[in-house]
Design a protein that fits this description.
alpha/beta, TIM Barrel, DNA polymerase, domain 1, 2 domains, 7-stranded mixed sheet, 10 helices, 7 strands, about 15% strand
Length: about 290
């Protein structure tokens, strides 16, 4: 039963649609609930919640944090956070400042190759957005150097590529504590994307469990039934609730549809969200 999508992005980070339009799209698709999980910001949550109240669809306030993991970046999703939490906002401000410094270094790298990007103009073009690599990808597309956002990342912006600059990250423990302190519940996002071997996956699961993470994104765009089954088994073994999300970005990732993924493989019932919240109540971490 296709009822929820717990991983969506708006134009407040790297999606193409406004928070209100994102919620309207979910409503048009017949979903009961979606989570707004923009990268390192909850600034789109108030607009999304207002749209949800108007349209009669539940909006879960959240975000997606990047965590450092042995030179890799592991993402943690947050749900039901208090967007006004002082410590959360202080940390997010630090992350944005660090992103800004990284952005300046990327601009300098591109300028050496004759690719001129004005950060002030880029911010004006995307008002209210947290500027990051996806916005640089759009610039590379306009310059005729990439065919899509994904192509720009593969050729220029992924780790190890010419214009990649690593930024600072929270640890898994720090991110989980931050989310819990803001009244929220956390889940490890798209675990297969990190290309970990069995030993590495085991270590990540143990670390996340010990840090108090509650969920594991077992259902995700492009994941086969076999992959989902493996992740569900891991979730059961380490005491996580299974979560589900498409990682929808609107027209910036046109191959992914909200609520259904790439080929209709997502089919998540509301029960997954209810179980995640119930787990938090049982563990005494709910707001």
């Amino acid at each position: 039963m296709r009822e929820i999508d717990l991983h969506t992005h708006t134009n407040i980070s790297d999606g193409s649609e406004s928070p209100a339009d994102t919620v309207a799209h979910a409503k048009a698709l017949g979903l009961k609930a979606i989570a707004i999980t923009d990268h390192d910001t909850a600034n789109g949550v108030p607009e999304a919640k207002a749209a949800g109240e108007k349209l009669g669809i539940e909006v879960v306030g959240g975000l997606e944090l990047g965590c450092g993991w042995y030179g890799k970046e592991v993402h943690m999703l947050a749900y039901d956070i208090d967007p006004h939490n002082e410590k959360l906002n202080g940390t997010l401000e630090w992350i944005v400042t660090d992103r800004d410094e990284r952005n300046k270094k990327m601009v300098d790298l591109m300028a050496k190759d004759g690719i001129i990007i004005d950060l002030d103009e880029l911010k004006a073009e995307h008002p209210g957005s947290i500027i990051g690599r996806p916005h640089f990808a759009l610039c590379l597309i306009r310059a005729g150097l990439a065919d899509s956002v994904q192509d720009a990342f593969v050729r220029y912006l992924d780790p190890g590529r010419k214009y990649y600059i690593r930024r600072h990250f929270l640890s898994v423990e720090e991110a989980a504590e931050l989310i819990r302190g803001a009244g929220g519940v956390s889940s490890i996002a798209h675990p297969m994307q990190y290309r970990l071997d069995d030993e590495g996956m085991t270590e990540l699961m143990e670390k996340a469990r010990d840090a108090g993470v509650s969920g594991l994104e077992c259902y995700y765009s492009g994941y086969s039934p076999e992959v989902c089954a493996r992740l569900k088994a891991l979730a059961a073994a380490y005491g996580f609730c299974a979560t589900a999300g498409s990682d929808w970005h609107g027209s910036h990732k046109p191959h992914i549809e909200m609520g259904s993924g790439m080929h209709g493989e997502l089919n998540a019932p509301y029960e997954l969200l209810a179980k995640l919240r119930e787990r938090e109540k049982c563990h005494g971490f709910s707001k």
